[in-house]
Amino acid sequence: MAQCVQSVQEFIQDSFVPLVAALCSEEAERLTRRNNLSFAELVRPFCRLTSEAHMRDPNNQLHIIKNLKIAVNNIITHPPQPGAIRKLLHDVVSVSQPAEGLVANVITAGDYDLNISDRSVKASVPWYSNWKETLMELNTSTFYSATTPWFESYRECFLQSMPASDHEFLNHYVACMLVVSSSEPDPVEQFLKLSQEQHRIQHSNEYSYPKWFIPNTLKYYVLLHDVSTGEEQRADSIYEEMKQRYGTQGCYLLKINSRVSNRGADEQIPDPWSQYLQKNTIQNQDSYEDYTVSNKNTDHLISDGTDTEIKDGLSNNFKTHPLQLDHPSGTLDSTDYMKASTSLQDSKKSNSGTPHGACLTLTDHDRIRQFIQEFTFRGLLPHIEKTIRQLNDQLISRKGLSRSLISATKKWFSGSKVPEKSINELKNTSGLLYLPEAPELQIRKMADLCFLVQHYELAYSCYHTAKKDFLNDQAMLYAAGALEMAAVSAFLQPGAPRPYPAHYMETAIQTYRDICKNMVLAERCVLLSAEILKSQSKYSEAAALLIRLTSEDSDLRSALLLEQAAHCFINMKSPMVRKFAFHMILAGHRFSKAGQKKHALRCYCQAMQVYKGKGWSLAEDHINFTIGRQSFTLRQLDNAVSAFRHILINDSKQPPAQQGAFLREYLYVYKNATQLSPDGPLPQLPLPYINSSATRVFFGHDRRPAEGEKQAATHVSLDQEYDSESSQQWKELEEQIVSVINKGTIPSNFQPTQFCLNRYSDNSKFPLAVIEEPITVEVSFRNPLKVPLLLTDLSLLWKFQPKDFSAKHDGEAKEQGTCDEDMVGTEAIAEFLINSEETKVARLKLFPHQTGELHILGVVYNLGSVQGAVSLDGIDPSIGLQTGKFVSNGLSVRGRQDLEIQGPRLNNTKEEKTSIKYGPDRRLDPIITEEMPLLEVFFINFPTGLLCGEIRKAYVEFVNVSKCPLTALKVVSKHPEFFTFGGNTAALTPLSPSASENCSAYKTVVTDPTSVRAALLSSASSADFGVGTGGSPEVIQVPLPDAVLLPGASVQLPMWLRGPDEEGVHEINFLFYYESIKKHSKMCHRVLRHTAVICTSRSLHVRATVCRSNALGDEEGRGDNMLLFVDVENINTSETGVKEFHIVQVSSNSKHWKLQKSVNISGDKDTKLASRERAKLCFKAVRCKNSEENYTFADIVFGNEQIISSASPCADFFFQSLSSEFKRTHVQSHAHASQRAVKQSFDETVRLIQKCSEVDLNIVVLWKAYVVEDSKQLILEGQHHVALNTVGKEAFSFPQKQGFKKILGNSDWEDLEQELPETVLLKFFRPENTPVPARPTPEQLSNLIKTSLHYPESFNHSFHQKSLCLVPVTLLLSNCSQAVVDVMIDLRHKPTSSEALEIHGSFTWLGQTQYKLQLKGQEVYSLQLKACFVHTGVYNLGTPRVFAKLVDQVTLFETSQQNSMPALIIINNI
Q1: What is the pTM (predicted TM-score) of this model?
Q2: E strand spans, 827-934
Q3: Which of 88, 68, 66, 75 is closest to 159 using CA atoms?
């Protein structure tokens, strides 16, 4: 139960006080009315005694009365109507509301912190010691309780408005004040008239109301004297006459109105009347009839046939001041409330702020206070004392007992007890009436008098005696009254001699309710008993008592009692928080039925604190819905909107129909709220959800669709998924081209171009957008409801600050709506439907028309439900809002949602790692820069599938769609070997389309088919093809005519493509770079992206090896010639439809070597390869004579058409493959640079030796493939490159997997290809940098000196004539290096096994066995030898051992002859 401001004792004492009637003459009433007060109102603030009073009980014992209060009321002869009392109670509760703006009261109960909107917090348990200790116990439970002033106001009004009844005398009048003015002509006569009037009211049968305590009511004569206008002497003389007539203790002269009206107007006189009068003031009242008509369903009244008993009170607003503990709580008679509730004029007058007591001074205040003291001490209390004695004497004489009733009761108690009958056995005799002189009523009368003057022990004895008598007579109404007051008296006895008899109260309540059917008296019992139980910390019993009295006959009473029960649950030692919440909900429901909307709302809000966030979503929805409706009814539209918002944004478990109803209610409430302030800022809407971090921003126009053969550059679009690896590649490409443009450095203000910003991109810098180019924002919406949402007129909300970046002047920031569309154009989506529980993205566009800073703030739209989406909403449309109309009208409301994106968490510095800090995310704050050119690229006849190495010709169209010219067009790619735009000079680039056979992509010349397969020579410089000029080979200049593309202009350029050597799907990225002719401060360049996807399938595989020819001399007598073996295999699979490959030409490209002729034995002119066939070709290569600058191209043609390999595109792809090969080897060799520097001198020697085995010869195999596709034969052409670097070492056209292929051979190679990735992963060793060898390898040394024996193949000799056969042999020694070499020839046979002797045969060299020579660089030396044979046979002459060393070296190296063929000679005998 809520904490009261008064203690229980104070509350009960003030509930039952002696009543004094006041009867005033008209003139006396006029005097008091000068202060806007009646006489009863005038004295009311002073009715509590400030000092103790004394009286003697029947045993002549002194009894002390403390803090006594009396009530003075005007006489009203009509009993109050039940309906009027209900109206009064309703208004009392309605006016009393929690104060707003004060510090909230938080009750901590268990795990809950409950915020009770209340004006006072008090400890409600005895063991509450001090505040500090309580704070320490917050984790477990804090016993706080909130006050409920509306309940106290209701209770006070209820108790004071109870009509007087015959079974008790507590609210009967004990005395009557007769008030006459001193200014009347004959005051004594007037007193006589008033006395007769009072007698008539009390004793004549025409007035049954008010009730009087005893027949000889105390009359007290008061003479009112107006000090400001009256004659004081006359007043004194009249008073003297009165004293003689009525005695000094029966009359009083009260002087008032001492204040002169013209005295200081600024003098402040306190107004003690307002707090009492406001309790009587019903604000905003209607007449009683109107009230009953307008609230027909508020309370259901059940009449029990008696007008004097009320079933219930309705409630409304009475302002009280519960915080002022020291003021007397005025006890007002029900008649005054009746006057207040029926007198509309008085209420309005008092409401208008009329000052009270304007003619009274502080002295007058003291006089009134003294008057009440005198009346009580000299008149009232002696009268009551005398009456008690008389009643006591009457009772003793009638009963014939001993003198004192107290001693009698003791005898009764000590005697044998008669068992009381249970309540159910008693007959219903509530209608039994006693005569006024009945001794039982005299006992009750004496008990009530003792109770009123705080003699609780004697009162208890009398009540107990009366209870026995009433029960014996089965007068149940009287018995219940005696039981009720006996229990209260027992509780109030000082020193608590006996425990509180709660069972007395239980019986009384049950009797009032069930037998007497008098709910008013039952309610009084419950209010008193609950307060007593609460004071004893018996909260559970108090709650049960309160709940028991809730019933259907009165919603207001039930609501108030349920609320108090809820407070009891939370005040228990172990707070029952959920019971508190549940009963608050019940109370709120009953408040709502009683028409107390504000209190209903408050109850639901307090209960919500318990249910919120506990996962009880359906309970939360119910509470929020009720809060929303009540708030709407009270015109608290913001609260209503907030409540409905909570229903919608929680993950609702409601069925779709209910959700649809909630949504329509929300829209209706929201619509009403926005209509109140149509010009205010747009409020935030709760639906749909926006995933702000998923917002993507795209700068630029949408990509054009493909038109026939024209395919637009893929560029970037919002339909593409973000790929961090791809994004990094584009960034590297852009950095690479910017670095080339800026001569190797990247500018400090360089900002990589980002077309699409999302949660993964780097959004730390302000993005750049170009004027007149759209900005697309993709917003991700999610509908959490099971009903569709319709957004209409959806657009972006932005703020723009114009800035001229070329000048210093900045404009003012403009918000959307305050500026025209000429700054930023906004595109709106007319309708955007989001289905139930769907996530959907909307793409919204802005068109900036000025330079400056743009800030995208959020989205603005109309939120509505789909018409007819849900036909039933499950809610009675007659209650509250008219929900049905949304289905037909499709109601929508306008609002906004902000896009607030949290940046990435910072984790760089120590401070950032130890705290939670987030960086900025500026994707929604673009800077609009000056006009820039805009390039569009289209690819014509661009293939999607190629054979490995296939050459295809396509066209690229460049279009400038902007209004300013573009220049410096370049393209960069990680795969420059994939494409070419042709050479730098027109002469090297073939015309398009080519006039040659089959429209070949190559530049061709028809040759004579009968010519020998000798090489056709041509030469070209690498600079012509952009290679070797020091620039990056990946950055390619696009050959625009005049190097500028004007606005609106377009140009088509040929582009040759070559299928990558590796089969599979290839993604090849092109980045087109271009600049504006005019330099800008913000944006220096622009880029355009294109990703080409090419699927390549296998074609040919080429392996080549080169070895030195044994024939030392060529046609020209030079000793440098080599044999080149080319092995070409068709590894194409038959699925691609390739019938066969024709090798049409083999070309060589080198600065030092050239092919001379083909030495194929086959007479077939054209080399054809069907599937899985292999061809072996052999060529002779000789050294070139041309300069070091140019490459020599030698073409050996197998067909009748020569492809000029030194022209585009053949040479382009050759040079590009060369540069990529160089790049690969350069990366590998870069790691050894430091080691090489250390051993430089020795390495030079080794390098010279290594050079001997190096060869710089590149082979291009050009082929044609015949493909059958759709019954048509196509001819495809292509080329493969093989780079030969080392003599004797095999080289491949596709080097990446050569190791496996060489080991496994071709047959197993195919089977393993699918498993290669796993096989590669099995390398567990760590590759180490192989150091440069300290000595050359044997293979390298064998190539230092090349030897050749010249001799006749067979020699005829007559052994009969001459036994020794001498054969001349020439040993040719050729120095392959550039250095001077010392050579030693040893002709002695190596000491070997007998096997070797057999092989060599027995021959000997004649002459010197050892020769020492010195050969200069590239020198050829001829040494004449003689071999001696003794018989016929076949002999191997290759026995000379040749040793060589460089001149400045010490160690000799033996040159190996392993690569030489055996030098066999046949000796014949003739």
Answers
A1: 0.67
A2: 829-834, 839-848, 852-865, 892-898, 927-929
A3: 88
